[in-house]
Write a structure and sequence with these properties.
The structure is a homodimer. The first copy, chain A, is mainly alpha-helical. Chain A has nine helices and no strands. At the A-B interface, helix 7, helix 8 and helix 9 of A face helix 7, helix 8 and helix 9 of B. Chain B binds a DNA duplex (30 and 30 nucleotides) through helix 2 and helix 3.
DNA sequence: ACACTAATGGCACCGAGCGCCAAAAAGATA
DNA sequence: TATCTTTTTGGCGCTCGGTGCCATTAGTGT
């Protein structure tokens, strides 16, 4: 019932592993899809069936984590102030088990420090922001397209990126602490 | 002294005009650089000497406006609270004479609603954010790379984009008013 | 007329990405 | 065992953005 037809030749995970290795060795821009294909042992054409674009490889299965984010926000206590709920949600979303830290740092370094990827990532961020917008809109009885939900989504992303940049700059810092610091810095600044 | 050698065949302004017309007619992605070259009456190769990339055409001479932005911020009264100075600076930077509104709206619509350009624009935004970061760092006696200046830069951009999106959605609104509204919305939200 | 200079634009090339389609490799069926 | 069905693979050829190279062009200055 399940597996008919020709078996798959590779997997998202394998491609990701190989690609990350090559990116680390030569830099993102110097690695071609053909290079990756050879190294994986698969046709170039096939790579494009696993990842829409070369830029999407570093993002992996990001879209599937967004459902988790939605759940996190939905389960926040109702009596929490909205900004606190969103902030804690963002913090939770960016928690990773200790053994995943190293690879997560590598992935984020690639995404945040490669200009090509910085640009492409906006499209991914948009989906993440939409999750926040929808949550804020629902709690305030507004539409997701309204100014305030939009603003909150954009600002939440601004804080997250600021924290991530700090985290990448100094390996000894804690991402959650930086998120808190960015938030409290902003509040003081606006006072 | 001044003009030796073969005279130029076109100008940034002319290319921009032609390109915008074609973008409006067929959509950004459906217009190739070859199309623009033909319409301008110039070689394709020459286009790339005037604009680094197709994505840069809608941004025009943006980098040259950044000096103006720097000046605007530098000339803000010292006794103004920093967040107020930055906010007013952003508002001033986005003031356009009445007769330029229509074309500015068109440009921003292109930039903010075309996915390809949304992505590319991050790189332009980075230069804009850097102006704010430097100003904030200078006033607070910090480094531009420090968390707070970074955060302020990112948040200022977040507010500006939110306002622009609202402005594009409703042609009757005033951009300056939307910037104010986004800012006050954020302050209330964080309270 | 001749040298000099700077922009032009043609050519060939690379890499991402896509449509198309024949071939491969399995399970199902007889 | 042989054939049918299903699904993935991967090769081919194309478009388009972008770049390096270089001869050509169209001016200015002497």
């Amino acid at each position: 019932m399940s597996s008919r037809g020709r078996p798959v030749a590779t997997s998202h995970a394998e491609i990701e592993r190989v690609a990350f290795r090559l990116f680390a060795e030569r830099g993102f821009d110097a690695v071609t899809m053909a290079d990756i294909a050879v190294e994986v042992g698969v046709g170039r054409r096939t790579l494009f069936r696993y990842f829409e674009s070369k830029n999407d490889i570093p993002w992996g299965q990001f879209d599937r984590t967004l459902d988790g984010f939605r759940t996190i926000l939905a389960e926040m206590p109702e009596d929490l102030p909205l900004h606190e709920a969103v902030h804690r949600g963002v913090r939770r979303f960016n928690e990773f088990p200790a053994d995943a830290q190293a690879s997560h740092r590598m992935r984020m370094r690639l995404i945040l420090e490669t200009p090509t990827l910085q640009a492409h990532s906006v499209l991914r961020y948009a989906e993440w922001r939409a999750v926040i917008e929808e949550h804020v809109a629902a709690r305030l009885d507004l539409e997701p397209g309204d100014l305030l939900p939009r603003t909150v989504g954009n600002v939440a992303l601004a804080l997250a990126i600021s924290a991530y940049e700090g985290w990448l700059a100094d390996p000894d810092t804690d991402l959650a602490a930086l998120l808190d610091e960015a938030m409290s810095g902003l509040r003081d600044y606006l006072r």
